[in-house]
Sequence to fold (204 residues):
Amino acid sequence: MYEGSATSTPAGRPLRADARRNYDRILDAAGSAIAQHGAEASLEDIARRAGVGSATLHRHFPSRQTLLEAVFRDRVQTLCATARDLAADLDPERALVAWLRAVAVHIASNRGLAASLMHGARDPARDTTCHALVVSAGDALLANARRAGAVRPDVAIIDLLKLANAVGLATEQEADGAAEAERLLMLSIDGVRPRGARATRTTR
Fold:
């Protein structure tokens, strides 16, 4: 897990296996609840989905903010792992496009999560680390695509992340925000390709 997540006791000892399972179940349940109801999803509902009591949830996550932060860190790790898998499995252009789609869908599916974290108690170290991890994962994919001649040389990973973020935030409150985010991103992605390649490629 991401460094700083609640995977150990205050004394620094690793969580017991049963506590680790509860922690993972709560994270999964929180992700599902946020996708359905937004960042204000009921903590009681999250505990019920996870099959744990409210006391267990609060033992791992003393506040809503700490739970939202853990969900966010978990999503960042997932995006980084996805980037590595795509780089291994697909050609450079397809890998980059698929990852940007995953970023946009991630934002659209985590309804209100970014806004809640922005308005809560900020953790600059967390923000900086998570940002750096995502930029590094995407930059590796972009470098591969650039070497393959599939991306304009003036495109930076920050440009692409801004695009994916804008699409995700614009669609997060829609009934099927993830699908709409994917559709809009694919409408936009042609702009990053070299001019001569745009007429000959189709969206994926």
Q: What stands out?
A: The mean pLDDT is 83.
